[in-house]
Specification:
alpha/beta; septation; globular; GTP-binding; binds guanosine-5'-diphosphate; cell division; magnesium
Length: 195
């Protein structure tokens, strides 16, 4: 999708605050600092719309971005922030569980992992959870410009294996720096959102 128009319409903690237009939604999840804001900005052709995190784990709301008045990106606050209190973690867990399991408009989840490393326990837990609820998921391996091209395949296989990726879910390489993977990620999103 060629994006010209994006509007942050809603920062929601409670289902009563979710948008009511009925447009399809794609959620973006990942641990803090994985490159979620950077990916979002590449997808929507902005340099700094979704703000890159100076305070990881700080935003504890679901942010709904209305894209071309056709669909929403739902930015889910990053998980695995070491300094978050237990109460905050529990609140976070409840908020995203409610959204991901009950939202009718949700068409799929883009789950980001750092392409340079083995997925963390949190990454594994998140994917296992999405798989359990049968939520269509695209795993995106970020920051691939930081490893040499010759190592990509090995790295992607390792990620697939560690997450025990289901055959119906996809894994794509991505770099916000070079924009590599942008079209493929958009293809997946559009297929999920509009069929
Ligand atoms: P978020 O916390 O998940 O939203 O992560 P950000 O998008 O703020 O990115 C965290 C840090 O990683 C920032 O310093 C980004 O510039 C950097 N970063 C994100 N994506 C990439 C990428 O594809 N390549 C490189 N080299 N750095 C990236």
């Amino acid at each position: 999708m060629e994006v010209h128009d994006v509007e942050l319409v809603m920062s929601a903690v409670d289902p009563k605050q979710y948008p009511t237009t009925g447009d399809p939604e794609i959620a973006l999840v990942g641990r803090s600092n994985v490159g979620k804001s950077s990916l979002t900005n590449v997808l929507i052709n902005r340099n700094s719309y979704a703000h890159t995190s100076s305070q990881p784990g700080k935003t504890q709301t679901l942010n709904f971005y209305h894209v071309e008045s056709q669909m929403y990106f739902v930015d889910v606050p990053g998980y695995g922030y070491a300094k978050a209190s237990r109460t905050d973690r529990e609140k976070w867990g409840q908020m995203i569980e409610t959204y991901l399991t009950q939202r009718e408009q949700l068409r799929g989840v883009v789950s980001l992992v750092d392409g340079r490393h083995e997925p963390t326990k949190d990454d594994q837990q998140m994917y296992t959870w999405l798989a359990y609820y049968d939520i269509p998921t695209l795993v995106v391996a970020t920051k691939l410009d930081k490893i040499s091209r010759g190592k990509w395949n090995k790295q992607l296989s390792m990620i697939k294996k560690t997450l025990q990726l289901k055959p119906e879910d996809a894994l794509l390489p991505f770099s916000a720096q070079t924009k590599m993977g942008k079209d493929a990620v958009w293809d997946w999103i559009e297929t999920q959102a509009f069929g």
